[in-house]
Amino acid sequence: MDAVTTATAPARTLRIGPIELDAPVVLAPMAGITNTAFRRLCREYGAGLYVSEMITSRALVERNATTMRLITHHESEKPRSIQLYGVDPATVEGAVRVLVEEDRADHIDLNFGCPVPKVTRKGGGAALPWKLELFRDIVTRAARAAGDIPLTVKMRKGIDGDHLTYLDAGRIAEDAGVAAVALHARTAAEFYSGQADWSAIAKLKQVVTSVPVLGNGDIWAAEDAARMMSETGCDGVVVGRGCLGRPWLFGDLARALGTPAAASGAPVDATLGFVAQAFRRHAELLVEFFESEERGCRDIRKHVAWYFKGYPVGGDTRARLATVSTLAEIDELLATLELEAPYPGAAAEGQRGRAGTPKRPALPDGWLDSRQLGAEASCALAEAELDHSGG
Q: Does residue 378 share a domain with residue 332?
């Protein structure tokens, strides 16, 4: 891995504005994953900051019912963290004001890293920082509206290898008054494929000096996080796919990187019985979140392969777990497993979730012709703001 090595030791705390975390660890927003149920589960194992699913700014301003549900935190969630997506400065500013004035968040993150075609095609996500003044306007207005609530920015290296944006965006965000910047060390074109370029995190750390720089990409274990911090000098890590089916990773991270208070939990012996118990707890929290046993159990189905990766769980049992509708069905199936089976080692480790393959990013017509916002690009952005999906 071509990364710039520094002598910086891993931090034991992370301060984002007035928020001091006992471990320099942030849960990355993941659509359909980081709802209240999953955030609560991760928090039960470790320490850090646990961010919501991406919330669409216009849907929040218009008080879309689904969106209002997604931004509601459980009383145990402190600090409360919400990520916003938007492309119109006024709308993003308005969404920030809703969160601040209604006391709905203790931390707000802006998404400029999403590589999904339906987002970049309209100039959003990882495509947006290419338009420098638009990016500056959004971040500046959002930071001003946030007031005492810390506002951060998450981004990618750029659109592709020929259109990198992260160093310019980092400088602009720092000047605009953000409390931290986070970098997923891939371009939009790379999606989640290949190997994250940790040297880019080190370069950003050299450019952004007055606020924390957080690194994201290819953290599958606590050892990866410690190595990233050592090699790049970053102030903390953002963990996404590495915790899929492994919410106890946040406990490992707290012990490896955090304060003594954060590291107080015992190391996990991830037997099949332990994993089954975590899976069952996740399902229970989903039922509570959706206020529906059927919906909660339907949602846990997509987590089956992640939780039981590498464990001796037969194909028929996996298939049945992926069709459950009640907690009783889950209990019945888990009772059939060899719960004493030990942690399988390498078979359960490594990459989780879909990596995809490099692809040409979907962009508005003429998007790359200039770093200024032209009329055609403005039309594409206007269409993006019509998305009421709630994130």
A: no
198 in any annotated domain: yes
Considering the domain boundaries, does residue 43 fall inside one? yes
CA distances from 252 to 12, 14, 316, 322, 326 (A): 14, 17, 32, 28, 31
- Gap between the Cα atoms of 39 and 161, Å rounded: 34
Q: Is the residue at 35 inside a domain? A: yes
Residue listed under structure tokens 């589960």: 41
Q: Specify the amino acid at residue 156.
A: R
What is the residue type of 134?
Answer: L
Nearest-5° Cα angle at 366, 361 to 369: 100
336 and 373 within one domain = no
Alpha helices by DSSP H, listed for 55-88, are 57-61, 65-70
Q: Is residue 213 domain-shared with residue 322, that is, in the same domain? A: no
State the total domains in the chain: 2
Lowest mean pLDDT among 2-11, 84-93, 347-356: 2-11
379 is catalytic: no
Domain containing 98 equals 14-266+356-384
Structure confidence at residue 324 (pLDDT): 98
Crossing angle of helices 272-290 and 36-45, in 10° steps, is 140
First to last CA, the chain: 34
Q: Answer yes or no: do 379 and 289 share one domain.
A: no
Rg of the chain, C-alpha, whole Å: 20
Mean pLDDT of 300-309: 97
Q: Are residues 221 and 292 in the same domain?
A: no
pTM to 2 decimals?
0.93
Distances (CA, A) of 4 to 7, 211, 213: 10, 20, 15
Are 113 and 194 within one domain? yes
- Identify the band that residue 375 occupies on the pLDDT scale cut at 50, 70 and 90: low
Q: Which of 137, 42, 27 is nearest to 82 (CA)?
A: 27
Residue 330 lies in a domain: yes
Nearest to 253 by CA among 330, 243, 361: 243
User: Is 9 a residue whose pLDDT tops 70?
Assistant: no
Catalytic residue among 114, 234, 243, 297: 114
